[in-house]
């Protein structure tokens, strides 16, 4: 009888909170993808946002996903484009160096 109660409780919990958990995981996945896309286009001086109003508190849940995509060209000087490309090259080179030398991360010298 105890296992039936546990099963009923689990089904109730899943039905009640499972939807919220799935929506939270979907929103976290959208956040991760939107930042990767933003960082990919940022050095070129282009702002690309997926769901640009995702963190707007004045909008409802479904309204925060409209528009789905926003693309804007940045209006800045050429020196900032060079700085962004150099910083991105430095980050990528550090990541490649750490990937090729994993003992630096794990501590096994």
Task: Describe this entry's structure for a reader.
It is a single chain. The chain is mostly helical and 109 residues long. The chain is flat, with a radius of gyration of 22 Å. The model has no long low-confidence stretch (mean pLDDT 80).
- Low-confidence stretches are none
| Major sheet: arrangement of strands | 1-2
- Overall pLDDT confidence: 80
**What share of residues are in beta strands?**
5-15%
What structural class do you assign from the helix and strand content? mainly alpha
Largest sheet: 2 strands, antiparallel
Helical coverage, percent range:
55-70%
- The total of beta strands comes to 2
Number of helices: 3
Secondary-structure element sequence? HEEHH
| Global geometry | flat
Distance between the termini: 56 Å
Rg, alpha carbons: 22 Å
What tags apply to this protein structure?
mainly alpha
Concise summary:
With 109 residues, the chain is mainly α.
In terms of topology, how is this protein built?
Blueprint: H1 2-41, E1 46-50, E2 69-73, H2 78-100, H3 103-106
Antiparallel strand pairs: 1-2
């Amino acid at each position: 009888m105890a296992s039936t109660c546990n099963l009923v409780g689990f089904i109730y919990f899943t039905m009640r909170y499972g939807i919220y958990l799935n929506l939270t995981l979907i929103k976290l996945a959208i956040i991760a993808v939107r930042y990767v896309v933003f960082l990919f286009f940022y050095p070129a001086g282009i702002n690309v946002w997926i769901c640009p109003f995702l963190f707007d508190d004045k909008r409802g849940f479904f309204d925060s996903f409209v528009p789905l995509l926003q693309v804007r060209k940045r209006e800045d000087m050429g020196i900032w484009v060079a700085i962004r490309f150099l910083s991105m090259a430095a980050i990528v080179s550090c990541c490649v160096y750490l990937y090729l030398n994993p003992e630096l991360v794990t501590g096994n010298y």
